[in-house]
Design goal:
It is a single chain. This protein is mainly beta and 261 residues long. It contains 1 helix and 18 strands. It has one domain. The longest helix is centred in the first third of the chain and has 12 residues.
Length: 261
Amino acid sequence: MAARSAACLLFLLGACTSGGGSSSSDGGDDVSGDGEDGGIDGGASPSDGGPDGDGGEDGGAQGASVLVDGPLGSVVPGWDWGVPEPLVILAHRISPPAWVLSPAEILDDGTVAGLENVDRVRVFGFVGVGAPTSLYDGDFSGAEVSDWDPAAPGPVIAMVRREGGTTWLTSLVLIADDGSVSGNVGVDRTRLWRFDAAPGPVVDAPLADAAIPGWNPKGPGPIVILAHQDGVAVWWTGAGSVADDGALGDIVADDVLVWEP
């Protein structure tokens, strides 16, 4: 049930990457239905709004910085695939207009790839007080979120490395009530982080009523989305969309939490 919900969520996002080897489905099936995994269906125009001309930190809170604001194929500065740093990647979909969280590839040289029909991405890094705490770095089979409380979950993000390669993906993962993580196959390393210093969620509501207050579609800052479906004993993180008016969508869930780290 949980794997099927995750697959439906990514189908709504139009998620598919040009590469292979990782799937956000416990059964190993490709959730996009076209033999590819990860990605976004849709595009955007930088004319919709970009950095504010002061180095790009128009949407970030303390500890967050805009590392990339540009077309697909831009390079994350200082990227080290052997010791990856936590990233949040937003891509803009043109129809219907929305910023989307969806699995994106980071190649060994830091190139952002794997998103179809996208021409603007915003990549955020984190340093200092606002940087997330590392929770796990190891095989996906043993991945878990320490001190996990399903009644009061915290803002967790995940990245996975394709098996036998040097490509990382920002990833959708499922977090069970005991903190164990599932939802990917074809990966050989997983990193999990939690924003322990982040303020409380800006959204804590049923999906039907969920909207981010003060959302800036021309220069959005980083967000973390956790979603939960009634009767399913997991939360999932790493996917969803935000419309121009801040409304949350493309999530198969009943309840949604959103943080702005």
